[in-house]
Amino acid sequence: MTGLNGTMSDKFSRRNLFRLRVRDLATAWGEASKELKKGVQPNTFVRPPGALEDESLFLETCTRCHACMNACPFDIIQITGPLTGDAEGTPVLKLNQNPCHWCSTMDCIHACPSDALSMPDNGKVKAIGKVWLEHDACLNTDGIFCDTCVMYCPSDVQAIKMKDNFPSLDEEACVGCGLCVYYCEATPKALHWYPPEKEVSSPA
Fold first, then answer.
1. Whole-prediction pTM
2. Which residues, including other chains, have CB under 8 Å from residue 54's CB and lie 6 or more apart?
């Protein structure tokens, strides 16, 4: 006879189903962890300014102390979770969610006790990426004046300036902080971020 909670066989089936799901989840987690622990590929993550370029050396040097994250005045730096294998506990930037402000003080670098993040002797921190401008997607192409990207580009960088009522991007000066991309008002966005080691030519 079936009651409000079903028959004993129904209960048993549901209980087995629950166990099966838990087992499957555990298996999936284990397989994912094995794959990730084989080693993080270089350039998988966007590291904070001043990070060692060699990813393997960065992983060896970083002490996972989170000092850089705590020092960041804009709470930009995040810490990787357990599914990132050997990279677990290391600092990363997720520029599409929260762009770097490229602070003139570079508090994150000065807070690092291990030199995983370090200030070059010449004081010029290398770019964490680059940006290219898609002219046809820019609002100014449609006669809508917009200088949002210029306003948000860090004052110490000034990689974007208005020229003849149109944004002009100095790719050499660009540090790849992502502020211009994040705040671009065009849909789809007229500015695109890419890793520093990849060469991308802006369309004419």
1. 0.75
2. 42
